């Protein structure tokens, strides 16, 4: 492995840890500082932090891998995500920022739901915290799988620590660096590193497809199109071979945005409601560029591999293979850093949200109600480590697929929290019983759907993505139960301020 790669990677690791140390003083002051950065994020930091924590390793591994195999038909996932993210910024962001302050200055989503629906405060807080920790363990594991794949593909045979495989070493190093700056610097460090990581990811996703297309051996757009047509004409079709169910399963990824705690918690941390539109414009511009780059990387990477006789055993590693093949070692190291940035930005956000729920919604609620801010900050740091270690155990299987793990966790959150958040913010008749029913029905539907294998095959046909039945069932449960039960003085005008 060339020294230039190591120089770039060590520089990246050092920068992330330095940001964590810089943020340590602010993060240690109060629980609000550690868990929400004191609600003082600027629009640009909030926007790129939301985007980077959203677009995990799947953006540089999972989505390009799907494009490599299936062509433009897989791009509907990105389109659905873009539309869902835009609506999320319009509907959820301003209301959640205002109402989490209004309802008891809630620091976590479970605390907000408990404050919004006081008649079911304890069960809502408990169930939602369990859902967060459960699905985030799987979601965080997907990021560690991506880290393991990077080291397994890019650094094969270099590491030899006590018989550990390159994949296992990748998990250890990825988790170790994330824990270093997350434990020390809390939400502020996570958000600041997300901003830097988001910039790195966007540059990489502009650079890589451009070089693949127009660099040596690329042949340009026309040649790439010709090559793909010769391999399989359906690769350039948006609809060929795509059923209605398949299309719905792709575009409905966008429904998940409304219930992703690690994303919507950024809305809670923006300085003021008035700055939400600025953050939205920055975030959506970043997302559009990044998604187009990932889509281009996957499909044009397929053309490049065919033209140059490359063997690609795992399509999800096409970014890693091309980074090593096409660039100077210093740039290759930067591109590896971009992949690690995508992975780490999401892992750190997920660990912090899980930690906040364990601290605020379990420890402070059941074990130490009188716990002070300093104690809660320290407990939160311990919880970050614990959740990270659990995720590492889940990620220990090297055959795990990044996109598969992400899709399961994404559907779980979207179905459990999405309808509750939307209706809780916008429909004043929503009550505690309805919210609790929606949480349980949404999460249970997703888990049952996955366990029955209906996301792979349904009624003899293609599988249905579990977020569709989960989101619909949760939405209906909230409506029916809220209308069928007394509001118990929870009938309040929910205003967009």
TrEMBL record:
Its main location: membrane. It catalyses: L-proline(in) + Na(+)(in) = L-proline(out) + Na(+)(out). It comes from the Bacteria. The chain crosses the membrane at residues 6-24, 73-92, 126-147, 167-188, 195-215, 235-258, 278-300, 379-396, 402-426, 433-452, 464-484. InterPro entries: Na/Glc_symporter_sf, Na/Pro_symporter, Na/solute_symporter, Na/solute_symporter_CS, Sodium:Solute_Symporter. Pfam families: SSF. It is found in: Cell inner membrane; Cell membrane. It is a multi-pass membrane protein. Keywords: Amino-acid transport, Cell inner membrane, Cell membrane, Ion transport, Membrane, Sodium, Sodium transport, Symport, Transmembrane, Transmembrane helix, Transport. The keyword Cell inner membrane applies. Catalyzes the sodium-dependent uptake of extracellular L-proline. This is Sodium/proline symporter. It comes from Marinobacter aromaticivorans. The gene is putP.
């Amino acid at each position: 492995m060339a020294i230039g790669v190591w120089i770039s990677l060590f520089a990246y690791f050092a920068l992330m840890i330095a940001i964590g140390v810089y943020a340590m003083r602010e993060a240690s002051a109060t629980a609000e500082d550690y868990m929400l950065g004191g609600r003082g994020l600027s629009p640009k930091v909030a926007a790129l932090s939301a985007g980077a924590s959203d677009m995990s390793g799947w953006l540089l591994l999972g989505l390009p891998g799907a494009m490599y195999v299936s062509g433009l038909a897989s791009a509907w996932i990105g389109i659905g995500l873009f539309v869902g993210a835009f609506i999320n910024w319009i509907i959820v962001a301003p209301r959640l920022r205002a109402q989490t302050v209004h309802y008891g200055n809630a620091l976590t989503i479970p605390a907000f739901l408990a404050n919004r629906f006081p008649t079911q405060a304890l069960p809502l807080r408990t169930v939602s915290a369990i859902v967060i920790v459960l699905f985030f363990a799987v979601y965080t594991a997907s990021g560690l799988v991506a880290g393991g794949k990077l080291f397994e593909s890019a650094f094969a045979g270099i590491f030899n620590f006590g018989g550990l495989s390159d994949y296992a070493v990748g998990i250890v190093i990825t988790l170790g660096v994330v824990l270093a700056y997350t434990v020390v610097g809390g939400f502020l460090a996570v958000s600041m590193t997300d901003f830097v990581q988001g910039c790195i990811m966007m540059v990489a996703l502009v650079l890589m497809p451009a070089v693949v297309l127009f660099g040596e051996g690329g042949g340009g757009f026309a040649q790439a199109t010709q090559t793909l047509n010769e391999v399989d004409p359906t690769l350039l079709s948006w609809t060929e071979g795509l059923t209605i169910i398949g299309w719905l399963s792709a575009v409905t990824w966008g429904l998940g945005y409304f219930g992703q705690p690690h994303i919507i918690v950024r809305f809670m941390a923006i300085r003021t409601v008035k700055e939400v539109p600025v953050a939205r414009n920055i975030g959506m511009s970043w997302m559009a560029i990044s998604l187009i780059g990932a889509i281009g990387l996957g499909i044009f990477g397929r053309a490049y591999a065919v033209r140059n006789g490359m063997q690609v055993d795992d399509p999800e590693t096409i970014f890693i293979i091309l980074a090593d093949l096409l660039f100077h070692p210093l740039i290759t190291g930067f591109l590896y850093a971009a992949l690690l940035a995508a992975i780490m930005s999401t892992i750190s956000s997920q660990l912090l949200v899980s930690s906040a729920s364990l601290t605020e919604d379990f420890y402070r609620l059941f074990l130490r109600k009188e716990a002070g801010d300093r104690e809660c900050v320290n407990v939160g740091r311990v919880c970050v480590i614990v959740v990270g270690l659990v995720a590492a155990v889940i990620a220990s299987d090297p055959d795990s697929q990044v996109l598969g793990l992400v899709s399961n966790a994404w559907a779980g959150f979207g179905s459990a929290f999405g309808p509750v958040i939307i209706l809780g913010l916008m429909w004043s008749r929503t009550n505690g019983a309805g919210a609790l029913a929606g949480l349980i029905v949404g999460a249970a539907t997703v888990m049952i759907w996955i366990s029955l294998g209906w996301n792979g095959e349904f009624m003899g046909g293609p599988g249905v993505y579990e977020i569709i039945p989960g989101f619909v069932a949760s939405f209906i449960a909230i409506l029916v139960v809220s209308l069928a039960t007394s509001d118990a003085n929870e009938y309040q005008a929910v205003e967009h301020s």
